[in-house]
Each structure stands twice: as C-alpha cells, then as structure tokens.
Write a structure and sequence with these properties.
Structural class: alpha/beta
Number of strands: 7
CATH superfamily: Glutaredoxin
Distance between the termini: 30 Å
CATH class: Alpha Beta
Strand content: 15-25%
Shape: globular
Largest sheet: 5 strands, mixed
Strand order of the largest sheet: 5-4-3-6-7
CATH architecture: 3-Layer(aba) Sandwich
Radius of gyration: 17 Å
Order of helices and strands: HEEEHEHEHEEH
C-alpha cells in the first residue's frame, strides 16, 4: 500500500519530464472576437501575461507601465497579453468593447486583450491554471513574465508594478537563450 502513492508520484514526474517543460505555447485563449488563438503566436517573444480590471486601485499604475514597456520594447520582441477578469471585487463588469474603449481613452493605449476569463476556481482557464502552479492568484493584476522559450521566469503579484520586470525584460530580450531552465 505504501508503494502505490510513491509509484504514482514517480509516474507523474516521469511523464511530465518525458514530455518536457510546459510552456505557454501549449495553451489557447479566446481573443476579443471569441476565436481560440494558440499562444504559439508568441513564440520567440518575451511576453507579459496579466489578469486585469478597469475599476481597481492598481489600474492606473499597471496600464501606464504596460504602455511604457510596450512602447519601449515592442520592436525588440516584448508582447503584452491582457486578460480581463471580474472575479476579484467585481472590478471588471464591463464588456470587452467597453474595456477597450475605456483603456484607449484613459491611457491612450490599445493593448492586446483576450476575452474575459476566470483565473481561479472551478471555471478557471487552463492557461491560468498553468500560470499559477507556483503562485495562487488572489487579486487583479498578477503579472507573469515569460521568456522566448515560453517558460514563466518571474511572477509579480498585484502589489508590484510591471516596470519591476524591466531589468529582466532587458536581459531576456538581449539573448534568445537567456533564462533557460535546466531540469
């Protein structure tokens, strides 16, 4: 009886290792038009993925930083993918077109939005289940920095601003194989 759980744990570890690291490229998300889009589209880029809300105390600082980073590093390969979420404090009740208009008018910024999602609980998306393997999302504006190989290399919670990634972004953009994770 003792060996059964141990054998199962070994099997899970072996199958995970045999197929390699999971990456964001293994997942899809619905875009603003409701179509499933493979995150393979980000292959070769450094990506920030974040759950966002328009009526949160962190909205202004995060969108200002997203805009700053995207304007400064887009040409070098930085992409920002934002996922509106109404789970925390009901701070994203609007439709996607309303959200896009609000952000565009308020911040003169037109980020890439995906469809509204759940990031935790029984309705959570597979992508966000994957992203929060090492950190449980507890509020709006959790940010996941992903290297050019599609691997999450740093996580910032809601209390940190996107610019706190800036040095890591520079490092990741500077080398196509920077921050590789070895097994």
């Amino acid at each position: 009886m003792f060996f059964l759980p141990l054998t199962f744990a070994f099997f899970l570890h072996f199958t995970h290792t045999a197929r390699g690291l999971d990456t964001i490229y293994d997942y899809t998300a619905k875009n603003a038009a409701g179509n499933s889009i493979s995150l393979e589209k980000y292959r070769g880029n450094v990506v920030i993925l974040a759950n966002v809300a328009s009526y949160c105390g962190y909205t202004q600082s995060n969108y200002e930083d997203f805009k700053y980073l995207e304007e400064k590093y887009y040409e070098r390969g930085l992409r920002i993918a934002l996922f509106p979420c109404n789970q925390f404090g009901q701070q994203e009740p609007d439709t996607l077109p309303q959200i896009s208009t609000f952000i565009s008018q308020t911040f003169a910024y037109e980020p890439e939005f995906f469809d509204k999602i759940h990031v935790s609980g029984p309705k959570s998306s597979d992508l966000f289940d994957f992203l929060q393997r090492d950190a449980e999302i507890s509020w709006n504006f959790w940010k996941f920095l992903v290297n050019r190989q599609g691997v999450v290399v740093k996580i910032l919670d809601h209390s940190k601003n996107p610019r706190d990634f800036e040095q890591q972004i520079i490092d990741l953009l500077g080398s196509e194989d920077a921050a590789k994770i070895e097994l």
